[in-house]
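A common beginner's mistake is to predict each chain separately and then try to dock the pieces by hand. The better habit, illustrated here, is to supply every component at once so that their relative placement is modeled jointly.
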Amino acid sequence: MVKVFIYPSTSLILSDMVDRWGHEPLGAALQIRERIQTPGFDSPPLQMTPDDPKRGLRYAAVEVPSGVRGRMALMGPLIEESEAAIVINDADFSFGCMGCARTNELVKLLIRHRDIPILELTYPRSEEEGVAFVGAIKQFLTGLSEGAA
Amino acid sequence: MKEYVPIYVGTVTRYVFVDSPDITPQTLATRAYEVSEGVMIKETCFGLQVTGMPEEVDRLIEHIRLMDPNHIFVKDRGFPPGDPRRCRANLGGARPGYYGHEFEMGLIRFVSHGLDAIELMDEQDYPEVKHTRTAGPGLDARTLKRLIDAEEK
Amino acid sequence: MTQKVRVAQLSCGPEHSGVQGEIYEAAEAVNAEMFFPDLTLADIRRYYDEFGLEARSPDLKLAIARAKALVEGRVDADAVFIATCFRCAEAAIVRNELRRYIHEHSDLPVVSYSFTERTTAGTLLTRMEALTTIARRRALLAREVQEGLTLGVDSGSSTTKAVVMRDNEIIGTGWVPTVRVNESADEAVALALKEAGVTIDEIEAIGTTGYGRFLVGDHLAANLVQEELTVNSKGAVYLADRQHGPATVIDIGGMDNKAISVQDGIPGTFTMGGICAGASGRFLEMTAKRLGIDITELGPIAMKGISKKVPMNSYCIVFGTQSLVNALAAGSTPEDVAAAACHSVAEQVFEQQLQEVDIKEPVIMVGGTSLIEGLVHEMGQLLQTDILVPPHSQFIGAVGCALLASGFRGGRSDESV
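With all components supplied together, the output reads:
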C-alpha cells in the first residue's frame, strides 16, 4: 500500500480511485479529522486556529497571506508524507481547502519537486475521456503496487 | 475562550456516493443497515455517510461497494455527520466542499463508463490520456518536431 | 430579544486563518448571525460568468457569485460582510469590486475587511456593530432634528468630548484629555453642563460613543450607546447641513481613522483602521511637540510652509519623527516641516483608506484633527476638492449622540414608531 497525495485534495473521484486500487489516499479530510478530533479551544468551523498559519510558515514566508499559510498547514504534511501523487490540473471548482489559487500553485510545485511518481491529467468530459482517465489512473496505481512489491 | 471537547474520537466518517441506474440511495441504505453492526449510517440525497471505527467502516464499505462497484464512490470526511459547524441549516448555505462534490458528480458517469470499459480491456489497449499540466492546448515535443520536419521538407 | 440581523458573508480564507470563530463571536456580540448565501454549482458558474471579473481562486469565484445573488434578490440578507486575507492582491481586487458593486446596486450596508491570523473579535466588533446598526436602526438614523434637552458624550482614545443640545442648538461643550474613562467623562460633562447652565437632572436623554462608550454608557445610565461610525456620519451631515444626498466623512482620530461613504445621513460603506500611528492625529501631536508649539498652532504654521521641501515618510511614527528631526537639523523651516507632517498623514490616510470607499462630494472632515487647517488643506489637495469642516467638528461624536439621543426622551424611542 502506497500513500498517494491527491489533488484536488478534496476530490471524491481521486479518493475513491486510490482506495479502489488498494492504496491510501492522502486528502484534506485526514487533516481536518485530526483537528476535529483533538480537544483544545473552540475554533469553528474547522478547528483551525491562528497556530495553523504559523505552522504554515514552514512552507511559505510570513509575507504570504494567512489563508495560504493556513491551508499549507493542512497540505504540507500530506505532501511530505506522500509516496506518489495524482494531480488533476483543471480543478477550477474545488472550494474550501482548495479554494485559494495561490495555495494550489504552491501545492503543485512542492509535489512536482518531490522525487515521487506523479500522474497529471485533466477531468474527463466525455465517455471516451472517461476510459482514458480511469485507464491511466489504474495503470499508475497498479504500477505503484508492483514497484512496492 | 471556550473549551472544545471532541466527540466520536477515534472514528472515521466516509461519504458513499451512488450514481446508478439500478440502486437508489434508499436501497443502498437498506443494505448498509443490514450489515451495519454498530456503524452509524446517515442517509443523504447522494447516498450515505457512515461513521464508526476504521475497520468496521472498511468492512461495511467493502460490502456495499459490491452492490454496484462501478457506480458507488467513497471518500473520507473530516467531520462526523450532522455536525452543526458544517450543517447547511446552520450555515445558511452549503459548506464549500459540497460544491466540489456537486462538480465531480456531474462528471461521474464518465468515470463509471471508464470503469466498465477497462474491465473488458487489456492494459495495453487503454486509450492514451491527456498528460497535461495545464488545461489549455499545448504543444508537446513530438508534435513540435513533426511541425519542424514538415517545414524543412 | 430583537430579531437577529442576518449578515451574508462573502469571504476567502478566514476558516483556514483560524479567524472564522472571531467573526462569529463579533456577530454574536451585536445580536447578528453570519450566513453563507446558498447557491447551486450552476448558479455559481452563471453568476460568476455574468459578473465578468476573472478570478483564479475558487473561493473568490464563489464570493462573486454570492454577491450577485444578493444584489439580484435571489438571497435575502440584512447586511454584507466581505472578508479576505490581508496581502492577497487577487482578493483585494475582488473585495473592492464586490463592495462597490453591492453598494451601487442594492440598499445593503456592506463592510469589507482584510484579516490576518491575528484578527480578533474585538477588532471586528465596531465594524460589525455599525453594520448591524445600519441594518437594524434605520428609523433611529432617519432623525434630522435635535429636540428637547439632551447630552452626548464621545469617550475617545485621546480626548473625551461632551455636548449639551437644546432644541437643535449646541448650548454647551466640554473637552478634556482622556485619562480615566469615567472620570474624564464626568469632567467633560460638567464643563458642558456649566456652559449650558443646566443640571444633569434636567437632561432628558443621554447618548455615548467612542472607545469608552460601554463603560461611560453604564456610568451615566445612557439611553443610547452607539459606535462612532454611524454616530459620526450622522453628526457630520447634521453639522455640515448635508443631510440629504451623498457625502464622504473623514475622521482622522488619535488612534484610528475612519472614512465613511454616506447617503442621506446613513453610512453605506466604511473603512476603519490605520496600520500605524504614523497616519494618525498622534503623529501631528508629536510634530507639534518637537516644534515646541501647541497643537492648535500646527495648522496655521503648516499653511505657511511647503510640504514638498521636506522628505518625510511617517509610515511609522518612529521613523516619521526621525525624518522630522533630520529635516530640522538640515535647516528646514518649522513651517515646511509642519506642512510635510500634515501632507504625510493625509497621504497615508488617502493611500490606506480612501481607496476603499467611493469619494463623493461633499467631503466632510471631522474630529479634532479637522481643526488643523494644514491637514485639511493637504487632504483637499490630494482629493482635488474643497473640504468642508463644519462648525463644532471636533465635537462630532458628541453632537451625533445628542442628536440621536433626542429620539429617546421620555422613555420613548424613534424605533418604536
